[in-house]
Amino acid sequence: MKLFNVASPVVMVVGLLIASAGVTEGVLSADDFSLSGQSASAQPEAQATVGTGVSAISNDVLDDVSIAPPVSTGYEDPYLDLQWALEQLPTALLSQPGTDNEGVLVAVLDTGVDLDHEDLGGRVVVSMNFTSSPMVGDISGHGTHVAGIIAASSNNGTGIAGLAPASRIMSIKVANDGGRTEAKAMAEGIIWAVENGASVINISAEFSEPSLDLEEAINYAWEQGALVIAAAGNQGNQLPVYPACYENCIAVAASSPDGTLAPLSNYGDWVDVVAPGFEIYSTLPDDSYGYKSGTSFAAAHVSGLAASLFPLTTDTNGNGRVNDEVRAMIESSLPRTALN
What we know:
Blueprint: E1 15-16, E2 25-28, E3 45-50, E4 105-110, E5 124-129, H1 142-151, E6 168-173, E7 181-182, H2 183-195, E8 200-203, E9 205-207, H3 212-223, E10 227-231, E11 249-255, E12 273-276, E13 280-284, E14 288-292, H4 295-309, H5 323-333
Parallel strand pairs: 4-6, 4-8, 5-6, 8-10, 10-11, 11-12
Antiparallel strand pairs: 1-3, 2-7, 2-9, 3-5, 13-14
Helix pairs in contact: 1-4, 2-3
């Protein structure tokens, strides 16, 4: 029985979503892309572009996952040496297509993703548009950058290496081409992702005010076995932002290469983990690449790690899901605070 009265189309069907008045405004969590949000006056359609092979996730069993720093991969990605984060993250593995995380669905709730990028070929299996923009793809580059960190193809002689290159991306456009987003659209995107098989949901956006719709959607995702990972924001203070500070969400602050807190990253007791988020090199639209900084990209690194861990994790407490075990491994393996 579903908890919400929200349109929930299967991936082959276009679903109509109605925007409501009085929505909570939000911004994307990157220091070079933080346009304040505003409510949409239109009633946008949810447009779908579908790739191949979308299916639910099955979890393989591995009794004890030991997360260790990565060893040299021997990959032939030409920009691998620019990805300093890979040397610091406790990745279980940088997997190849065909290994255990094949099929893990990661929902990227953002500005869309460049479906034709050379380093994301075959990784984006569905694109949904919950905004008033006529474009389902990514104009700003924010969502494409996030997707590359998570799932860019590796050892293909092109570009960079994603943390979970065998995973698949669900591009769910909840921020329009100017970076404006709404809590209601975000909530609807979360529910759609869960009902269509997402195990990991990346939210690289922040709201200064709480939203009941958003909190309930995150609780629903957790209860259904998905793990929501969200950026802690870029105001450089300790004030909580939403949805990162909600209980059933991992809040991610950003670190610099030397282990210190990245410029502008929020921090505080409500933050769960810290991950690389300063001068992060990743994919951009039109087969390009570049650096971006912010907690948006710290969250993306944690989402990539989560996608690698999901199929390696067993249900140790018998509750029928493994998102709690994956969360526990992430929080025990990543620092909660950065060096001063």
